[in-house]
Specification:
CATH topology of the largest domain: Aspartate Aminotransferase, domain 2
Number of domains: 2
CATH superfamily of the largest domain: Type I PLP-dependent aspartate aminotransferase-like (Major domain)
CATH architecture of the largest domain: 3-Layer(aba) Sandwich
Number of strands: 15
Largest sheet: 7 strands, mixed
Mean pLDDT: 95
Bound molecules: pyridoxal-5'-phosphate
Structural class: alpha/beta
Number of helices: 12
Shape: globular
């Protein structure tokens, strides 16, 4: 029997893997020590657990354990890297390069620096697949550029940027490269050496770990990256992030990375198959559906589709037993179409009609078939009520219709 509701929104968050929960449990109870307590076994035990997690996380991205700085999540990691670098290297320059489809944690950090007069930011465009052109990165670099911040894979459309090329350009020009790698870590092979990444933001809850724990990878050699701490206190985490470590969360994060490393290849293959099954099933049953994002360079579990003549929000309401996301964000008064989908050059209407499916570790083929059927039936039902869809099917060019206001 299928268990409802079905969760297919794994880019927003993932359920905690039972193996991760099991590893965490003792650290809520008998192993409650403060990892900074140096004088007794409670502290040592906690410190050992943190060291082990550091190794597990570092191994996933080919880093050294001491290069992992624990934070409260990727929002903090993005803030710390962008604000921390701009502040530390202010005598060298004040120019930052990013991209229009970045996560809000990156974009808003950049905006805050601009407003404070601390940085000048270049927002690079993307192509119709959501990919940034490495040549644009190269051309944007000036002698004032202190940071390039471009994500590994996009959280809405799943597009994977040409990170290795961007890393190579950054190295060549001597510019620090920060990468929001939240959606890529544990899903596709990520290697900070091969990819030329100097700073990487990670978050446990996007790879079957707990919420509220993240990390920032900070390169220690070639170059040694420095940054200004954004939190003053006891000087934890090599002075980059003060605060008592969330040992339980860190243990879970480490375990999640270990599991991901062991299963990534097999899981990526399985999720790609499921995603392709979902995509093929929907395309078979519906017309006027378009893919948002890159056809091949995309995350295994990501499918982002626009259903023309259908409001994404109405579609979501009609399939209440399926948890997916729409490309519209309810802001105070207006329904804003997603800035990521808009950046692809699609119309506001199509952006409003987009749905993001995020397949994950615990989804099954049976669930995919159920969701395919629910989507196909609901889109058909909504289109049956749509005069626009009817006109389009009758061959009327909607762009040529002179609409009357009265
Ligand atoms: C979820 C996400 C974040 C924020 O991570 P939190 O740990 O929830 O703060 C940042 N960047 C990307 C790409 C994300 O998907």
């Amino acid at each position: 029997m299928l268990k409802l509701p079905i969760y297919m929104d794994n880019h927003a968050t993932t359920p905690t893997d039972p193996r991760v929960l099991e590893a965490m449990l003792p650290y809520f109870t008998e192993k409650f020590g403060n990892a900074a307590s140096r004088n007794h076994s409670f502290g040592w035990e906690a410190e050992e657990a943190v060291d082990r997690a550091r190794q597990q996380i570092a191994a996933l991205i080919n880093a050294k354990p001491k290069e992992i700085i624990f934070t409260s999540g990727a929002t903090e990691s993005d803030n710390l890297s962008i604000k921390g670098i701009v502040e530390f290297y202010k005598d060298k320059g004040n120019h930052v390069i990013t991209c229009v489809t970045e996560h809000k944690a990156v974009l808003d950090s950049c905006r805050a620096l601009e407003r404070a007069g601390k940085a000048v930011v270049t927002y690079l465009p993307v192509d119709k697949y959501g990919m940034v052109d490495p040549d644009d990165v190269r051309k944007a670099i000036t002698d004032k550029t202190v940071l390039i911040t471009i994500m590994y894979a996009n959280n809405e459309i799943g597009t994977i940027h040409p990170v290795r090329e961007i890393g190579r350009i950054a190295k060549e020009k001597g510019v620090i490269f920060h990468c929001d790698a939240v959606q890529a870590a544990g899903k596709v092979p990520l290697d900070v050496e091969r990819d030329g990444i100097d700073l990487a933001s990670l978050s446990a809850h996007k790879l079957y770990g707990p919420k509220g724990i993240g990390a920032l990878y900070v390169r220690s050699k070639g170059p040694r990256v420095r940054l200004t701490a954004q939190m003053d206190g006891g000087g934890h985490e090599r002075g980059m992030r003060s605060g008592t470590l969330n040992v339980t969360g860190i243990v879970g994060f480490g375990k999640a990375c270990e599991v991901a490393q062991g299963e990534m290849v097999e899981e990526a293959r399985r999720l790609t198959d499921l995603r392709n099954r979902l995509q093929a099933g929907i395309f078979e049953r519906l017309d006027e559906v378009s893919l948002n994002g890159h056809p091949t360079e995309r995350l295994p579990g990501n499918l982002n589709l626009s259903f023309a003549y259908v409001e994404g929000e109405s579609l979501l309401m009609g399939i209440s037993d399926v948890a997916v996301s729409s490309g519209s964000a309810c802001t105070s008064a207006t329904l804003e179409p997603s800035y990521v989908i808009r950046a692809l050059g699609v119309s506001d209407e199509l952006a409003h009609s987009s749905i993001r499916f995020g397949l994950g570790r615990f989804n099954t083929a049976e669930e995919v078939d159920f969701v395919t059927d629910r989507i196909a039936r609901e889109v058909t039902r909504l289109r049956d009520m749509s005069p626009l869809y009817e006109m389009a099917k009758e061959g009327i060019d909607l762009k040529s219709v002179a609409w009357k206001a009265d």
